[in-house]
Amino acid sequence: AHTSGKTLRVAVIPGDGIGQEVMPEGIACLKAAAKRYDIDIQLDEKFQDWATCDRYVKEGSMLPENWKETLQQYDSIYFGAVGDPARVPDHISLWGSLIQFRREFDQYISLRPCRLMPGIKCPLADKKVGDIDFWVVRENTEGEYSSIGGKMFPGTDREFVVQDTIMTRHGVDRVLKYAFDLAQKRPRKKLTSATKSNGISISMPYWDERVKEMHQQYPDVEVDKYHIDILTAFFVLRPEAFDVVVGSNLFGDILSDLGPACTGSIGVAPSGNINPEGRFPSLFEPVHGSAPDIAGKGIANPIGAIWAGQMMLMHYGYKEAADKMMEAIEVALEKGGPNVITPDLGGKGDCAGLGGHIAKLIETL
Ligand code: ATP
Ligand code: MG
């Protein structure tokens, strides 16, 4: 947690497309919360062209050369979106920005809430608010996404490829520790581990073994494990069963897209890329991307960005302010009405209108 009494220093990087539209709303909401709860927060907005495809087209890189030293001076990065596939291929824009941050700042936790919100039509049948409320914790640095391997005998009939999975004790234990800590803080104290030790016969049994070992330090947390195939089915069939779900890089990737998808709108969900020890800045962003199809129209839903700001305050220990932001989001969704709610949720409101409405609720609720 953040040392209180210290300024919370945040680098704001809105990026591409609707990132530029939703982030001002997120900032307005953070400022409203900071004012009401007297939080000493500095939102530095001088990074307007960082991580933009405009910059890439002009300068040949997504970020300036000294990006690491510069961002290193902040506690946190508040990020919008990146990508403009019509001009710059996604692998260039993404690898030149977010992936760099993740790697260089050792953001080894990817954290996503999966929570059914009021006023949103759930794609799963018969689910009510309260039925879906869990977190997905994904290992973000190793596992299946290693670049170790290669192709042999290319072009011949003996051709084959190999790609290794890396699981270090350090890497597995630190993500499990984060997930156990999170589960322990929640009322249900339940942790579900994603595995596939019946098919992947070396790395996944190792993962299971580390879960078992770590569990000894958290005797009050209830642990279960599911193979990834049935686990994805249960996300859809019985999401009530979950509280905190932890997975390797690949399984966590799948679950952290599926989880929010089970709760409705892509415009609403947030995400954190976290370096829990605070040795490097953590990053908070909406789950959605730059959405070129609606960029510039002013109709993007700003809630993903606002909720990401809420997650950031929670992460640094400003619970009261974070709870108020959450309440404001819920009230806006439930009672805002069709003139306030954005078109992705069936309303005819716009980005600035919904953002302003939520900022006002944070001040007054
Ligand atoms: P990425 O490449 O990062 O996945 P993308 O821009 O291709 O990004 P997303 O932004 O994830 O795709 O979203 C897909 C579609 O969902 C968008 O094209 C848009 O129509 C819709 N969408 C996404 N975010 C929002 C939002 N905040 N408000 C309204 N609609 C959204
Ligand atoms: Mg895309």
TrEMBL record:
Top-level taxonomic group: Eukaryota
InterPro entries: ICDH/IPMDH, IsoCit/isopropylmalate_DH_CS, IsoPropMal-DH-like_dom, TTC_DH
Residue ranges constituting the Isopropylmalate dehydrogenase-like domain according to the UniProt record: 9-358
Alphabetized SMART domains for the sequence: Iso_dh
Enzyme class: oxidoreductase
Keywords tagged on the record: Magnesium, Manganese, Metal-binding, NAD, Oxidoreductase
EC number: 1.1.1.83
Transmembrane segments: none
UniProt source species: Kwoniella heveanensis BCC8398
Catalytic activity: (R)-malate + NAD(+) = pyruvate + CO2 + NADH
Listed NCBIfam families: TTC
Coiled-coil stretches noted in the UniProt entry, renumbered to this chain: none
Cofactor(s) this protein cannot do without: Mn(2+); Mg(2+)
Protein name stated in the entry: D-malate dehydrogenase (decarboxylating)
Pfam families given in the database record: Iso_dh
GO molecular-function terms, A-Z: D-malate dehydrogenase (decarboxylating) (NAD+) activity; magnesium ion binding; NAD binding
Family stated for the protein in its record: Belongs to the isocitrate and isopropylmalate dehydrogenases family.
